TrEMBL record:
This is Uncharacterized protein. Keywords: Membrane, Transmembrane, Transmembrane helix. It comes from the Bacteria. The chain crosses the membrane at residues 12-33, 40-58, 513-531.
Length: 537
């Protein structure tokens, strides 16, 4: 069926077509009533010219069903000859480069990631399949991390690398290794996990052996304030240093030390309604189980001397199912210089463990029960290694916090001129402090999570974008992680096309008369109009 898509619109279209119609009527009547020589030929030639001009303005289009053919799309920088064998394996009819006309195919195979957004948007609405490249020139094929974290939260860097041999992937900060993983040769996935322990802007370098392959940048906000109630049966350095660290962290801390059966010494601040209760085995019997979930959001058992007996008592008290296995006859020395009891936890359903902190957790609905087998982590503070101490205990606090309110989620890397998503989990309302001359956000409420807000944005500048002393985000430039950016462009493009229906339906392509043909036809008809009066029979 023929449709019209005029090159003009509105009143201008009506006016132009009206003028052409009036001129045509006038000319026809003039030729017929004046009885000029070859008047019928003149009428035909003039109507032909005016009709062609009118159709050019109306721009007729029609749809035709696509044949069952397919094509392989390759980046503009590639050589078609190199894909001869590959195209035969795919059984495609043609290999085309990005930027070439891609009309007339039922299916397109998109090879690789090196495409401009404009090249992808020009592709027709047909069935598409993406074939990732195995280009050895790209070391980092895929990469992702959290762009905004709260202090102590777990940062997880995941991705895919091309490794020519067995190598060690390391994340370094000022020559100190924060996380590492050994990779085999070939295409390898990886995951580096560590706690965010440096407030503000963080820039950490990724190294493959001694070769730097990129920089990971993210922002760490201050932690949400928590309340800790410490109850111990005797004063000890582990508990005292633990309480001092929490106070320096900005938490509300109350320390109750039992000095006799009916008396105790209390030091610290008034606590909030839901606090974390930290106890040693001597205080297990005194805990009121009915207060769990209301007064206490979590219970942490520390200073365990007899693990088998103490954990058995913990299980009876709180209905937990912690299980341990002995792994040696004496305390286990950790790499960070601390020591822990000679046992390992057997992880069960609804449980989690932190090996570096020798701590296990069991979720019980609205509260968490945890037990730590650490013996002398305070020795790190005595030696001045506060970062080492934080690496032990911050992951524990993160597990005990029961989630973070007023926190952001930003999937990085964020690239200039590409869409990105940011979300905010707030107590009541969307954030109003994220706006400056470089970037602003329009927040929408999540339909499924009541306290969640999200926004889509396109940064136009690269580098650190400052919002306040407590929040900045980093935007990558054009040269950073090119393969990752290419994948992100393709994935975003394919998501936008995912609602297009295929299968047994007719797949059609829109066609029209090309501009050059219109030019030739109108030129010929105008030439005939000019030549006819000058022709002598």
């Amino acid at each position: 069926m023929i449709k019209f898509e005029p090159i003009l619109s509105g009143n201008i279209l009506i006016m132009v077509l009206g003028v052409l119609a009036l001129i045509s009527v006038f000319q026809v009547f003039y030729y017929l009533f004046k009885k000029v020589e070859r008047r019928y030929l003149k009428v035909f030639l003039f109507l032909l010219f005016s009709s062609l001009l009118s159709l050019f303005i109306l721009n007729p289009t029609w749809e035709k069903e696509l044949p069952g053919s397919s094509a392989l799309l390759i980046p503009e920088s590639e050589n078609k000859a190199h894909f001869s064998d590959f195209s035969k394996e795919l059984e495609v009819d043609k290999v085309i480069k990005a930027g070439e006309r891609a009309e007339g195919f039922r299916q397109l195979y998109i090879f690789g990631e090196n495409y401009k957004k404009e090249e992808l948007l020009s592709l027709p609405l047909v069935d598409m399949e993406w074939i990732p490249s195995s280009d050895k020139s790209f070391v980092v094929l895929d990469l992702g991390w959290e762009g905004i974290l709260k202090y102590g939260q777990e940062q997880k860097i995941t991705g895919i690398l091309n490794s020519e041999k067995s190598q060690k992937l390391q994340l370094r900060f000022v020559n100190e290794v924060w996380a590492e993983q050994t990779l085999e040769d070939g295409e390898q996935s990886f995951e580096l996990v560590f706690s965010a322990l440096i407030l503000g802007k963080n820039e950490m370098d990724l190294y493959l052996d001694e070769s730097k392959i990129g920089t990971v940048r993210y922002f760490v906000m201050g932690p949400e304030q928590m309340s800790f109630e410490l109850k111990v049966g005797f004063p000890n350095p582990e508990t005292r240093f633990f309480a001092d660290y929490l106070r320096k962290r900005g938490e509300l801390v109350s320390l109750r030390t039992q000095v006799a059966q009916s008396s105790s010494i209390v030091a610290g601040e008034e606590l909030a309604d839901r606090s974390v209760l930290v106890i040693d085995p001597s205080q297990l019997k005194s805990v009121d189980v009915n207060k769990l979930g209301s007064d206490y959001q979590a219970v942490l058992l520390t200073n365990v001397n007899n693990p088998e007996l103490d954990i058995s008592e913990l299980n009876r008290k709180f209905g937990t199912s912690f299980t341990i296995n002995r792994i040696s006859e004496k305390s286990v020395e950790k790499e960070n210089g601390t020591s822990a009891q000679a046992f390992d936890f057997v992880t069960k359903f609804n449980q989690d463990t932190l090996k570096n902190s020798a701590t296990a957790f069991e979720m019980k609905g609205d509260h968490t029960i945890a037990v730590s087998l650490m013996e002398d982590s305070f020795s790190l503070l005595l030696s001045g290694d506060s970062i080492g101490y934080a690496k032990v205990w911050e992951p524990v606090f993160e597990k005990l916090s029961m989630g973070n309110k007023n926190s952001f989620q930003l999937s990085s890397p964020v690239f200039r001129n590409l869409k990105s998503n940011i979300s905010f989990l707030g107590a009541s309302d969307s954030p109003n402090n994220l706006q400056n001359e470089q970037l602003s956000f329009t927040w929408k409420k999540d339909a499924l999570i009541g306290d969640m807000y999200f926004s889509r944005f396109i940064p136009l500048e690269s580098g650190w974008i400052y919002f306040s002393d407590s929040l900045s985000i980093y935007v990558e430039d054009e040269e950073s992680f090119k393969a990752v950016k290419g994948r992100k462009i393709l994935i975003e493009f394919l998501k936008e096309r995912r609602d297009y229906g295929f299968g047994s339906e007719r797949i059609t392509s829109k066609s029209n008369i090309p501009a050059w043909l219109w030019f030739v036809l109108i030129l010929i008809s105008a030439s005939l109009l000019w030549v006819e009066p000058r022709y002598r029979s």
